[in-house]
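Subject: Sanity check before I submit

Could someone independently write out the structure tokens for this chain? I want to compare against mine line by line before I put it in a report. The sequence has 359 residues.
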Amino acid sequence: MTERYRKTIYCEMQFLRECLELYGDGTALDSSQEAVRIWKSLHDLLLSPDVNLRLDISTEDYLKEIKDIDKRRLKAAKKGEKLLLNKMEILLLDFERRRQGEADFHLKCLGTDFVTVDALNSGNDLSLNAIYLTCKDAETCKRVTASYGVLVFTSKDLNLERLSLGDEGCAIAKGESGSWLGKLQGHACNAVVIVDNYIMSDTRKMDENMTDILQALLPHTLAQDMVFHLTVFTSDLKLQARDRLGRLEQMVKRLRPELNCQVSLFRCGTNVFHDRVIVSNHQWISCGGGFDLFKNKKSDKMTTVNIIVPYLTDTVKWARRAYTNLVTQLGEEINKKTAYINDSFPSFCLGAGLNRLIQ
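---
Independent answer below. Compare away.
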């Protein structure tokens, strides 16, 4: 059985110290609404059962800090006093209580094995499906995000706009245009999975809709040594699987000639996936009416589109678990993939057959 997916968060201890100093813990009377929201969102992310939290402190040093706090508390108690802890110590004790008592808190202290973000990073140095919380300078973080499609947040430049705590989307009436795609521009990613049973059933609608979606999602700035992974899970291919894969590969080459992209096409039974969803490293996009929505630039049905960054949003509480559930299921489908023999088979894989988002 495929292990349940969790997003890995690489978090520097200094990031936490600087954030607590800048934003407090959200309890101070003089905390701004923005500061309260930023810290609460970060705190919820770090303690989420849907993430693997990795700290740059060694296990030995981490336990030493916990023991030191316990000794000071015991000493204060013997004097009939209450030990006043600083905000970082309170956070560490929160980590430790959960580490000791909750099976769904996934903390590791990596010490020197911690994956750092700096100006010398290459795609081989980074975990390319992780989120990084660092205190490095903002320009280095922006460069790493642009070059490798990973989310990097620095305590030097943290604000509500950068964190994408909200959610976006729109209601589309029959006959409206595809203006929602503009909301996807500039989103950092290095892998995308499209799940839609009918997106590739009609070549005319596939060419129109898939072209617009890829134009919005495919990155412009990935480093030359980076391979982008694009995978489609679908059902109805009209016995033309090789043709559909070829159309998709040519579409990518036309839209991003410089992008090194590995394309995979999975055919699944209609009972495997029902919801129509696009996921990248960090984004969840769902459309009830399906992504084969437009014909001659006009919607042929009424529907809604949701666009969420699941691991950051504080407005859509179900999104993180929905993303986890989907990626876990995608992993199961990839693990039992069957090589293409002919179009009569109910399930098979064509193309690269891999995606780092799912591996």
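---
OP: Matches mine. For the report I'm noting this point. The chain is about 35% helix and 20% strand.
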